[in-house]
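Person: Show me a sequence?

Helper:
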Amino acid sequence: MSEKGQWPEAVGLPAEQAKAIVLQDDPTINIQILGENDPTTRDFRTNRVRIFTNGQGIVTSAPRRG
């Protein structure tokens, strides 16, 4: 498991490309692709990365564990 906690290099990329970057660092991570205004739970999970996108599917903030 990679200890990397954020992927700022994914901002501005299509969601699937960002997902591939995260999976390259940790292939066991659970990835959720969400809209930037979608509701989420507030629990923190080190085995989860949420990728937030705009209406065009572009990553709007750095994906991070949690």
About this structure: The radius of gyration is 11 Å. Strands lie at 30-35, 48-53, 64-65. The chain is about 15% helix and 20% strand.
